[in-house]
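Residues determine shape. Take a concrete instance:
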Amino acid sequence: MQHFDLPGLAQERPLRVLLVNAGEPDTLSWSGLYQPLRMAAKIVGPDRLHVDVRSPDKFAGDVQRPWHLVLLVADEAHAGLRPAYMRNLVERCRAAPFWGGVGAGVLWLADAGALNGVRTALPWSLYAEADSLADQALFTPNLYEIDGRRLTCCGGAASIDFALTLVEMVFGAGVQAQVKELLCVDRVRGAHERQRVALQARFGALQPKLSEAVALMEANIEEPLSTDEIAQLVSISRRQLERLFKQYLGSLPSRYYLELRLQRARQLLGDTNYSIVQVGLMCGFSSGSHFSTAFGALFGKTPREERQRKLGQ
């Protein structure tokens, strides 16, 4: 996959971000995305960040102006109100170096084939409508995804976390901290944190064994179960369990479990005063070096660096 440097967008002067609002202006998906970006633009100044808004029809017809990041936004309640000029909308989005969707906008892009082979965060409430697309886009239960130059977010309250993460990636933790203070936000949820009901909504009826296995993992963070133990508890073979995880979650059970524990560790590092050793033990790591190595491999920083970053904010 070609590498795209999202933090490198800070070098653009000004960085031009366009939000295509295909829903109502007072939805949580829209305001959660727009307000943090608008505040960041005020903090860094118009010479560094310009955030603009277009309706779908105006954006589809506006072929002259270049944008660095374009996001198609709509609340999931508007999923059936697909805008006209959808083909033009997709073509215009793909013309930007970075582009994607939020809420129902994700479903529309996936339905147009624009997210084939891409890790995609889709609102859990739209899984039923996306069943026919499951072999194309790689739907995940995560709050948001940044895969190459494609960005997707499940919308709702996660739009705030998504927008604040973009602010930090492009302009740094200092700017993000100022926006968080203005919004009275204590913690920004990470990209790998999951929609709470997404797995049950997507797999509960069709793949109950998978849902049971994930629930066991979530309930046993401090004393992790082995893959064989999980398979035995849900009454299937290890091979069947691995096949379910690979097919529906794109990961082996052991890897998925490890990421769950590390996400919990990251939350504890930011939200509590437990020592780093205590956090590691609480998340099932008996060795400090193993905890540090695994944490760094997933998040690109050590637990100590993560704690210092949170303290600095």
Summary: Residues 12 and 203 are 42 Å apart (CA to CA).
